[in-house]
């Protein structure tokens, strides 16, 4: 039954679709899955047959969203009362509508159920209510519903049947039949001049024929355009072949990335071992520094406990100068050696990186050439090329004998590719003929390229801006590094000056040591007493401040509570 288009005075208040409202239990097994499936099928069938303008399926009703439920309810109620307009809040209107149409279980459809339609406890009741509305529309029990159904049927029938059985007014037989009726009526009235009617009939058929001719021309053009597209598709390369080729290329790239990841993971244990070794060396160096510090303290204690004569002081100064000079020479040689080793390691690492890059390029080219493809009957090479830097013999560095195995295989492959090249050149001559058919696509691609170039320019400007910011950051870092280097030089100069001054004061310190030792012993006792006294006073002050803070906190909380009470007491 289609929706009534003419204005209707049948309101919701005139529809009576049940026995009366009630809050009893629903006699239908609304919680049963089989019943729910049947109800959903009936609802979907009714909506599809009555012209529901949205996509509906079993999945969309398991359960539906609030938006879908509102759309379905509005559509169903429009079948009951086409003149009704929803103006209030949807949940409130649904409850009032259910009471108006006398839904027996209207009290069970609460506002919370309408707001959460998809919940497990609400959806069975909502589905039962929608099923009841469908039954009310299909099997009306009131005179108003019968009248509504009759009006729908009249709207669907269109014009009154004139006995021809033809409902299309543009049908030639219907046009001629109407002409005969009109001419016969004029003949009965005594009018024998039918020239005007004949001209009108001829004009009607001419207009109809013009529309038919235009439709035929349009169909011919569409047919020609479709044939051209079909011809282009037949002459061009199959999209499936292109996609298959791209898929193979991407699969090869994926395999290459997987092998590279495996290669990097294979390096990871070596790097972890190197890190562990460096940590052990660092711990050993720290232990040596601690041992040297203890030894130095013991030597210093020994030196401090000995009586040093002026001659011993001179001798120690001379030895100190000689040791310092020797130490400087050794440090210079060590630095030169470290630099040489560092340069050698850098050169070695560069060479290894270059070799690894060449090996990766070789393997990539080999995969692109199909040397390792498993789908070939007999692969050109058995395995990919790998390097072993730790090999003891030169011939063991590479996993493949490049001279005796790889080179002959590549020569055979080159011979095969040359023959394929000649065949491909012959095919290229034929492919040039299909180049003209691709020119139309080239124009579209040019527009896309222009858009992409503008996008590239924007990205280039953004990249330049980022580079400028990075340059400023690098300059700031370089300035900071320079400042650190100047500070290091200044500290080094100050340290050298302090060393000379310390050597000059060594003699004086030796003479003053005994006096200072005695004074230090006496002062240590006094200082310990003062420290103990200060600590006790500090603890007392801390406890005093803590108690005052607790009192202040209590007072603040009290004042705050009083202030809150006063504010609340204000009118």
TrEMBL record:
Q: Name one GO biological process term.
A: attachment of mitotic spindle microtubules to kinetochore
Is Cell division found in the keyword set?
Answer: yes
The UniProt subunit note reads as follows: Component of the NDC80 complex.
Q: Does the keyword Zinc apply?
A: no
Region annotated Disordered, chain positions: 1-30
Q: Where in the cell is it found?
A: Chromosome, Centromere, Kinetochore; Nucleus
Instruction: Write down the InterPro entries for this protein, in alphabetical order.
Output: DUF5595 (IPR040967), Kinetochore_Ndc80 (IPR005550), Ndc80_CH (IPR055260), NDC80_loop (IPR057091), Ndc80_sf (IPR038273)
Question: What family is reported?
Answer: Belongs to the NDC80/HEC1 family.
Could you tell me the superkingdom of the organism this chain comes from? Answer: Eukaryota
Q: For the Kinetochore protein Ndc80 CH domain, which residue ranges apply?
A: 23-137
Coiled-coil residue spans: 209-236, 261-333, 442-519
Give the function comment from the record. Answer: Acts as a component of the essential kinetochore-associated NDC80 complex, which is required for chromosome segregation and spindle checkpoint activity.
Q: Which UniProt keywords apply?
A: Cell cycle, Cell division, Centromere, Chromosome, Coiled coil, Kinetochore, Mitosis, Nucleus
The GO cellular component terms are: Ndc80 complex; nucleus
**Compositionally biased intervals (Gly residues):** 14-24
* Residue ranges of every copy of the Kinetochore protein NDC80 loop region domain listed in the record: 325-551
The protein in question is named Kinetochore protein NDC80
